[in-house]
Amino acid sequence: MITINSHAHPDRLPERRAGTVRIASIDVEWTKNYRIKNGNRPFCYSIVWLDLPSGTLTDLSDVPYAFTSVYVEDPAEKNDLVASAAATLRAASDYADLITGHQLCADLAVLDANAPHDDADLTRARAYWKQRRTSNPDAVQYVDTRYDAGHLLTGTSRRLVDVCTELGLDVTQPELRGTSMPALHRRWTDDADTEGRERVSVLNLRHSLSTAYVAARTEGLGHWGPDGLNVNRVLSHGANGAWGWLTHPTFTKLLEGPCRSATAPLSPSKAHKQPARRRSSTH
Q1: For residue range 84-141, what is the model confidence (pLDDT) as tens digits?
Q2: Which residues are 20's β-sheet partners?
Q3: How many degrees, rounded to 5, is the angle at CA 47 between CA 15 and CA 51?
Q4: Which of 29, 37, 39, 65 is the right S-S partner for 33, CB 3.0 to 4.6 Å?
Q5: Domains in the chain, CATH or no CATH each
Q6: pTM
Q7: Could you tell me how many helices (H) and strands (E) the chain has, helices first?
Q8: Distance between CA atoms of 172 and 6, rounded to whole angstroms?
């Protein structure tokens, strides 16, 4: 497998600053095949670690992040990727204060379905996700930004890109112009096209990073300015040197100018509604 870390010691968790709340944000990419039972196959995941000062509302544009990105070199490494993701979830459960993902239940279900045997870490993660709106002092807090951020939103769409756009996060995805994620992944598995893999890895990391920001906003831990936050700019800074795609002109031109989400129109599916009542905290 191809594993890329932002921190100095890949075999350890990133160092945690004192007096912080640690958010662990996870996103998994998988091929889809609904014609057969358990036909979806995971091939890539990332985790973002975001440490925020406790007891204050933090400007997230000024907070560094750490990450790990994992991608299979060959589809036969699927079991290794599932085991790695399960171990990552265990570490997040042990050392983070809040675990988040966007429709994380689906990612966990795909990992669990592809595990070669019952995996206690995946079973525990799925149980904690189901219990996330109940008070359980023994469980780490879970926030699923697809289902738990409704009190911040007026639109009806809960796609991550639409949620981010409404909240002023610029998550422009140049990787998908003229193509799709499955096509990019096939370029890697069929033709060993490195750029195809790198595009998916960056797309996946953007999902994890932007989800961490939405979760922080959901829980009243962080904010960004009224002009919005360019997530690609933050991603590029924190992952500098990780992938050649980050220096491609198609990507770098997104780093200049104002945040597009600040003036982006709502998608047609986002008819306005009254904001939902904020969900009760799990703690």
Answers
A1: 999 999 999 999 999 999 999 999 999 999 999 999 999 999 999 999 988 777 778 9
A2: 53
A3: 40
A4: 39
A5: 2-262 (3.30.420)
A6: 0.88
A7: 8, 10
A8: 22
